[in-house]
Fold this protein.
Amino acid sequence: MKKITTYWIAAALLGALPAARAQDTPPDADPAAFSACLNQLKATPAFSAITPATFARATEALAPDPSVLVLLNRQPEFTLPVWDYLAVLVDAERVADGRAAFARWQPELQRIEQQTGVAANVIVGVWGVESNFGQNLGGRPLVQSLATLSCFGRRQAYFRGEFAAALRILQEGHVAPEKLTGSWAGAFGQTQFMPSTFFRSAVDFDGDGRRDIVDSVPDALASTARFLQNAGWRRGEPWGVEVRLPAGYDTSGAGRKARQPIDAWRRAGLTLASGAPLPDTLPSAGLLVPARGGPAFLVGRNFDALYSYNASENYALAIAQLSNLVGGSGTSVAFATPWPTDDPGLSRAENRALQTLLIARGHDIGSADGMIGARTREAIKAEQQRLGLKADGRAGQKLLGALRVQ
Ligand code: CA
């Protein structure tokens, strides 16, 4: 199963998830059933590599955490347009932070690139989208979350494997127990690996004998590159390029997987967005059109490697775009072709500005933290109604502009 976590983090960030309510708490996460389940689990083959001492140390006095089951069952309230994701995940702030990180870790990044073939700016792009360069690692104790998900809810078989892998990380001493925290679904570290991913891809790059993707940035960056290498990354190839389509070009058969040799795309009349010829460095590619009438991209095998990080084309595109900006010198976060909307999404700074305006108008939404939660969305709806806009609770430029002039 692909990692499901970052999608949820960003969906929550953008207010696409409903708020948790008290009555959502599943009734069956009771402590007696939990401890019976753990007793049973430790004798199963999945846990054969875990010593009784490790298991006991990690689970003694452990209580289930029903809040992760609520999160497991939440569904997005609406589908966010791709430009809303990109506005938050690739804003000027993240580009500036990414360039600073790129400069600071340059010697390590260059060595990692030499060893794996994965471009340094791409590694930084993953880091920025996954944890905001280590600033958002997630604070939930992994063992508690994964033990709960192993015993209750609808994906127990999957989570049991992750739980066992988390215990093995502790048993082998890669990460200190109090540092093993992450998202509700068990992704952890600088680039949010699942525990099973850790054993496929984590690397001890700084040579201290531990693969510490939480506290060692070099370990985390090298592990990210190894992940992409394992996912088929090809040295020297770009993830893709933004292209200009010939007038009237039919994109109905387009898709990331409908790959053709680059010459076939040239013959069909596609060029770079600038009008320059398509590069030879991208030997074959598929045509990705995230929104009809918006920017179009030819994406190659390396885009698939980015996709495997999160199983979302929007996410892969966010990493790809952030990588380009981190590795380049341009200041605009926009593609050459604008998105087909008259109401673009907001950056994190603009989200904070919007929240400040909502608070000034008397809405009780907590602090202006840039996270569009349920209360912010309710306030947005109220203001949209008052202003005669479509009351969908979405944070966009139109609403921000309307509130700013008042
Ligand atoms: Ca290490």
Remarks:
- The radius of gyration is 23 Å.
- The first strand starts at residue 140 and ends at 141.
- Residues 156-171 form the longest helix (16 residues).
- Strands lie at 140-141, 181-182, 240-244, 255-261, 271-272, 284-288, 296-299.
